[in-house]
């Protein structure tokens, strides 16, 4: 999943200059910085997570440091999901459900399952469902959300036999402070 996100950011923005979109550059650098910071904090002794192959689950080490990291990660994801959904709603000026809102909510559901819900029952099957199956299901649903919102990558079998799709490429040139900027998009 990380490779997917990297590719989506890198290939889409590799020809853009940071000066063209300074706020986007700051956001990408900030997200990268937070990820590196959390990774570095996890390298401290007795502050990591352990994989249990017998139950196919990840769990924190039972130390104050690991418990604090687990709590910090949970509240950071909830805060970021809340912040991005607030920005999505503010940008749209109306409550619409779009791709990023659904994706943020999916990952918050996975965190709630893996931190709180699995503790409600000690049965191994219950914990397996709310830890491992939840993790896999959330990422599969994330892929379906991406597929649903990007019809240009749909397989031909989903287009229908009688339906013809036409598209045209439109280039829009707008004068900016940095010079002319051309935006090319595919219109369906």
Automatic annotation (TrEMBL):
Superkingdom as given in the UniProt entry: Eukaryota
Coiled coil: none
Keyword Membrane: yes
Domain 7TM GPCR serpentine receptor class x (Srx) per the UniProt entry, residue ranges: 1-99, 100-150
Keywords: Membrane, Transmembrane, Transmembrane helix
Spans traversing the lipid bilayer: 21-41, 72-93, 124-149
InterPro entries on file: 7TM_GPCR_serpentine_rcpt_Srx
One Pfam family per UniProt: 7TM_GPCR_Srx
Name assigned to this protein: 7TM_GPCR_Srx domain-containing protein
Organism: Caenorhabditis tropicalis
């Amino acid at each position: 999943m990380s490779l997917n996100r990297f590719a989506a950011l890198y290939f889409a923005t590799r020809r853009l200059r940071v000066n063209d979109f300074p706020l986007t550059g700051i956001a990408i650098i900030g997200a990268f910085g937070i990820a590196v910071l959390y990774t570095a904090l996890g390298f401290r002794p007795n502050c990591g997570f352990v994989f249990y192959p017998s139950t196919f689950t990840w769990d924190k080490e039972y130390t104050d440091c690991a418990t604090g990291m687990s709590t910090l990660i949970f509240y950071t994801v909830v805060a970021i999901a809340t912040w991005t959904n607030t920005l999505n709603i503010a940008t749209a000026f109306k409550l619409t459900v779009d791709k990023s809102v659904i994706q943020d909510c999916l990952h918050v559901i996975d965190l709630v399952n893996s931190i709180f819900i699995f503790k409600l029952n000690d049965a191994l099957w219950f914990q397996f469902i709310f830890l491992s199956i939840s993790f896999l299901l959330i990422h599969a649903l994330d892929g379906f959300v991406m597929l649903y919102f990007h019809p240009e990558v749909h397989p031909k079998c989903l287009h229908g036999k009688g339906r013809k799709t036409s598209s045209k490429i439109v280039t829009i040139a707008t004068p900016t402070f940095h010079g002319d900027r051309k935006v090319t998009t595919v219109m369906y």
